[in-house]
Design a protein that fits this description.
Blueprint: H1 3-27, H2 30-49, H3 58-88, H4 97-125
Length: about 130
């Protein structure tokens, strides 16, 4: 399979999965949404296996690595600021205290996951 055909196939699969998940959520059938997502991932994986051209190289991996790291840091900064901000307003708006704790705890969990994976891959590759 050529790279261009692969891209069109991925767009069609993404569209079909999005439509089916939206319909299943509207119908209230979350099992169907989960199965649709799983099948979409599997079909995409097996289609990618049939691509004969090179789809990734070192530059692509480096760009993806930097983009994912920056997205994670940006998201971490936003949820930390929002969480701390909501916790500082608990005297005026006590109904947002739980949301503040949830955001702050999510930020801590994300930092722990990042640190754990960093240590793991640093030992494995380094």
């Amino acid at each position: 399979m050529e790279k261009k055909t692969y891209r069109y196939s991925r767009m069609i699969i993404s569209t079909v999965v999005a439509v089916l998940v939206a319909v299943s959520v509207l119908l209230g059938n979350l099992l169907l949404a989960f199965i649709t997502l799983l099948l979409g991932f599997l079909v995409s994986y097996f289609i990618k296996k049939n691509v004969y051209e090179i789809t990734e190289d070192e530059r692509t991996a480096l760009v993806a690595n930097k983009a994912s790291r920056m997205a994670m840091l940006f998201f971490l900064t936003i949820i930390t600021v929002l969480g701390v901000g909501l916790l500082t307003l608990k005297g005026s708006f006590p109904e947002f205290t739980q949301a503040g704790f949830t955001l702050a705890d999510s930020a801590c969990l994300l930092l722990l996951l990042y640190s754990g994976f960093y240590i793991y891959y640093n030992k494995k590759h380094g």
